[in-house]
Design brief:
mainly beta, 2,3-Dihydroxybiphenyl 1,2-Dioxygenase, domain 1, 2 domains, 4-stranded mixed β-sheet, 7 strands, 38% strand
Length: 107
């Protein structure tokens, strides 16, 4: 879910119905910040979105126009695809394999 706050410079992102961790995203507002937009992680993935149903969320995101820049891959650790946000930041959509040590710690 998206919740605009602090005028229009920031937005809080959290899963629907979540009472837990949220993510605050802030828009660059100074010239020295703008130079880094889309490259906060130096060309690497910036954030990971964990899901309990990769294909459901991948297909929904595709249908809503999300730009995936790396196709889904099944890896030893789980299923993953990389998408780009409106500002060029890279995100992983990730469903961990059931036997992955972190699988019981997410969601």
């Amino acid at each position: 879910m998206l919740f605009p706050i602090f005028e229009t410079n920031r937005v809080v992102v959290s899963p629907p119905g979540s009472n837990g961790v949220t993510l605050l995203l802030a828009r660059a507002s100074k010239p020295e910040q703008i130079d880094f937009v889309g490259n906060q992680a130096g060309g690497r993935v910036l954030l990971f979105v964990n899901t309990d149903d990769f294909w459901r969320d991948y297909n929904r995101m595709l249908s809503e126009g999300v730009k995936f820049i790396r196709e889904p891959k099944v890896q030893d650790y789980g299923t993953v695809a990389v998408f780009e946000d409106l500002y060029g930041n890279l995100w992983d959509l990730l469903q961990l394999a059931p036997n992955h040590p972190m699988a019981s710690r997410v969601l």
